[in-house]
Amino acid sequence: LFTDRAADACxxxxxxxxxxxxxxxxxxxxxxxxxxxxxxKLREALLGPGFPSSxxxxxxxxxxxxxxxxxxxxxxxxxADEVAKQLGAEVMSFSREKPLLEQAKIAGSVNVIIxxxxxxxxxxxxxxxxxxxxxxxxxxxxxxxxTCSGEWNKDRFSIYGGMARLVGVHHIxxxxxxxxxxxxxxxxxxxxxxxxxxxDYDMIAGALRDLxxxxxxxxxxxxxxxxxxMHEVF
Length: 234
Fold this sequence. Notes:
alpha/beta, Rossmann fold, 6 helices, 5 strands, Glyco_transf_61_cat, transferase, glycosyltransferase, transmembrane, membrane
């Protein structure tokens, strides 16, 4: 890492990484209002103002997308199609072969992104306001490994809860059932990223109902404009 003599000098302070964009700490330089505005401008620059012009799925005004991981990657939502039908949502898989702009347009066509814990949830940045992300995690994953409270906008220092806070998106993490008790000892949690899950429709539907109540308050806190879509849905 160090290849010159200057590296041997002593320094009074050091910054490792970009503190201003870390989701796991409260930055002194940038607040939620600033990062939310940046996210909105990025969305408009990439997708255009007012995008989308028509929904790709959902009912009564709320557009929802369930992101399904590819086979062999682990954390597959085994009943994704069934739950999507109940919710009126689309199910899609994002592959490396799909152009990034196309993926961004898909994410930008929905208000709510639902998916297992994983990098695809980062597409929340482009979701259409009022945007929300529902993160699904295996119930057996210990809190010491992954914070998942089951409450909206509470996991502010988790990976995707923190990201949602920075870009002005609602976030909730829900613990879903698995079949691990029949397969292995729950003491071995090192392989949790390979565990498949079964989505609980009632739990997700309940979270969506709760979303209506707090959307207005959240928009007021981040300085955004409250959308009536939530009131049209529930």
